[in-house]
Amino acid sequence: xxxxxxxxxxxxxxxxxxxxxxxxxxxxxxxxxxxxxxxxxxxxxxxxxxxxxxxxxxxxxxxxxxxxxxxxxxxxxxxxxxxxxxxxxxxxxxxxxxxxxxxxxxxxxxxxxxxxxxxxxxxxxxxxxxxxxxxxxxxxxxxxxxxxxxxxxxxxxxxxxxxxxxxxxxxxxxxxxxxxxxxxxxxxxxxxxxxxxxxxxxxxxxxxxxxxxxxxxxxxxxxxxxxxxxxxxxxxxxxxxxxxxxxxxxxxxxxxxxxxxxxxxxxxxxxxxxxxxxxxxxxxxxxxxxxxxxxxxxxxxxxxxxxxxxxxxxxxxxxxxxxxxxxxxxxxxxxxxxxxxxxxxxxxxxxxxxxxxxxxxxxxxxxxxxxxxxxxxxxxxxxxxxxxxxxxxxxxxxxxxxxxxxxxxxxxxxxxxxxxxxxxxxxxxxxxxxxxxxxxxxxxxxxxxxxxxxxxxxxxxxx
Length: 463
Prior knowledge:
Elements: E1 15-16, E2 26-28, H1 58-64, E3 70-72, H2 75-81, E4 89-91, H3 93-99, E5 104-109, H4 120-132, E6 137-142, H5 146-158, E7 161-167, H6 168-173, H7 175-183, E8 186-191, H8 197-205, H9 213-225, E9 232-234, H10 241-247, H11 249-260, E10 268-272, H12 277-291, E11 297-303, H13 308-311, E12 313-318, E13 327-332, H14 354-361, E14 366-370, H15 372-386, H16 394-411, E15 416-421, H17 429-436, H18 447-453
Parallel strand pairs: 5-15, 6-7, 6-9, 7-8, 10-11, 10-15, 11-14
Antiparallel strand pairs: 1-4, 2-3, 4-5, 12-13
Helix pairs in contact: 1-10, 2-4, 3-15, 4-5, 5-7, 8-9, 10-12, 11-12, 15-16
C-alpha cells in the first residue's frame, strides 16, 4: 500500500523510534567541555554548595557544580522517564511538501510526556533528589504553566507536596494549567501574591502588576527558605547547570535516532530558548560534536519581545527580582525587566542559562529573534501539515525551521534540519483564538526601554 504523498518510498519511516533499552543511561554535562565563570555571592566571591543548601538538596548542588562529562541517571528516575521515553523523532514530510523544499526536516516530539512538554525530564530528577534528601515540600515558579505542571506530576510520583507561583498574566491566560497542577496535587498561586514579602513589594509598586518570572522566583525561594522545619526546598525548571544536564537525554536520543534513520549530522539544529532548558536538551550533545570538530549550525530562537541573547548584555545578574539568588554570568535584559504579555509565557525571562550564554558568546550557537505573528503563522502551517498544535514557545523553533527550509529551496541545497517540538499547545488555544481573530500584535523592546532595564545591573561584577 502506497502512502498518500508522492516520491516517498513505502519503507521510509515517518517516526524513528527507540526501545526503552536504548534510552540513554547518562546525562551529558557541557560544563566539562565549556567551563563557565562561577556564580557569585553578595560578597563577590564564588558560591559554595553549603551556601545554597537551604535552597537545594545536596545531590542537586553536586550536579550543579560538577565538572564530570557524564553523570549516571538513577534507576528510579529512568523507571519514571520510561513512561514516555524515548520520545519519537518525526520526519516532517507534510511540512516539506508544503514548503517545496529539498531539505529533510525532522522534529523531536517532547509533547508526548504526561505534562505535554520537555519539562518532566528534569522535574522527575529533581523530585527524586529531593525525596532521597528527606525533603517533604517543594516550591517553584512557572511562566506558561508547563514547568509547574511537570513538577506537580513529578512530586506526585515521589509523594512530595508542590506549591507553584505562576506569573499572573499566564495564570489568567491559561486557566487550565492550574487544574492540571491540582489534578497532580499541586497548589498554584498567581504571582505576585500577598503571601510573600517579594510579592507584596511588587504589588505595592504596581497593584496591577502582570508578574514576571523574576518575581515568581523570588516568591518561591522566599517560601522555601522561610520554612522553620527545613523540610521545604526550591526547584528551578530552567537556567541552572543541573537543569540543562537533565534535559540532554533529548539530544542524545536524537543522535541515536538520526543514526538509526541512516541520516548524517544535521546541517541545522534549532530550538526555542527562554531560560535554556529545552534548547540545551536538544542542542548540547550537538554542541559537543561541534566542539569536537563536526560541522553544524546550532540556532537558539527567542521572542523579539524578550531578546535576551540577541539584544541583552553578557554580565553578572541575579535570577530573581529581590536578590535572593546568586549572581550568574549570563546574557540578561536586567532583573527588573518587565516583559510584554506575549503568549509564549515560558520564554519571557530576563536572563539566560550561563551554559547557553557561554555557548553563544564563544560562537558555538547562533541566536535569532522572531516576532509572535510569524510564530503563530508558522504554527498554523505546522498544524495543517503535521497535525500537531504546538505550544507558543515551540512555534519559535517551527518558524526558524521554516525559514531555513525556504532558504534551502531558494539556494537549491539539500539540508538536514532538526528542530525541537518542546510541547503541545492544547492548553494554549486562547492565543491561537486571538491570532485567528486578528487580535495579536508584535511587540519590540525600544532602545530606551532596554537601556532603562539594564540600569539595575550597573555596579555588578563583570564575567
